[in-house]
Amino acid sequence: MQIILTKDVDKLGYANDIVEVKPGYANNFLIPQGYAKVATVTARKILAENLKQRAHKDAKIQADAQALADKLALLPLVFKVKASESGRIFGSVTSQMIADAMAEKGVAIDRKNVTVEAFKTLGSYTAEVRLHKFVKGVISFVVEPEGALVAEEGASAPAAPAPKKVAKAEAAPVEAPVEASAPTEAPEAPVAE
Fold first, then answer.
1. Nearest-angstrom CA–CA distance, 146 and 97
2. What is the helix, strand, coil percentage profile of the chain, to 5?
């Protein structure tokens, strides 16, 4: 069944695209939700006329999207995250975090248009941003450890387990007198028999 999309649908198409889908998907989801309408002859003619009138507007929108994509490439981001000493991060950098960081820099992006590949280590990465039907931007970002200064002072960090050993050593003498008192009671029991 051919339909005309009225809104962008992820992994299907953009608004005003004519796409082929299964009738059940169109009749049960796309059309009732307002994402599409049936591609009748009349609807196709109306679409063609509307597209012709909007060609100039679309060219400007595409140029603006390309300018934004160029601007995104020049705005590197740095995310501070918790990480282990081996460089493995706890959690991840999400599309919402990227959208929020770009908003702080004055660039509004919808988080739904940001695609980030999964990663689990510190380093430099990129995220793809869908800005227009024909324009995709790339955001470069660096993932650094949250406590970089603490990690550099990590040489003194092995001293921290030493107090734990002292605590265990203190716990051992407490247990030792209990063991020492137990043998004294045991010999008394056989004497009583």
1. 15
2. 50, 20, 25
d(CA 122, CA 98): 16
Mean pLDDT confidence for 175-193: 45
Span 123-174, pLDDT tens digits: 999 999 998 888 899 999 999 988 743 343 444 444 334 334 433 444 444 4
β pairing state of 136-145 and 77-81? parallel
- The C-alpha angle 4, 6, 12, rounded to 5 degrees, equals 70
Q: Is 43 within 8 Å of 3 (Cβ atoms)? A: no
Q: Can you tell me the distance from the alpha carbon of 85 to that of 154, in angstroms, rounded to the nearest whole number?
A: 9
Rounded to whole angstroms, how far apart are CA atoms 147 and 160? 17
Which whole-number Å values give the CA distances from 187 to 151, 178, 192, 193, in the listed order? 56, 15, 9, 10
Residue type, 23: P
- Please, what are the domains in the chain? 2-72 (3.40.5.10), 75-151 (3.10.430.100)
**Host H or E run for residue 60:** helix 41-73
Residue type (1 letter), 156: S
pTM as predicted: 0.54
| Collapsed DSSP state (helix, strand, coil) of residue 90 | coil
Angle at 165 between CA 159 and CA 170, to 5 degrees: 135
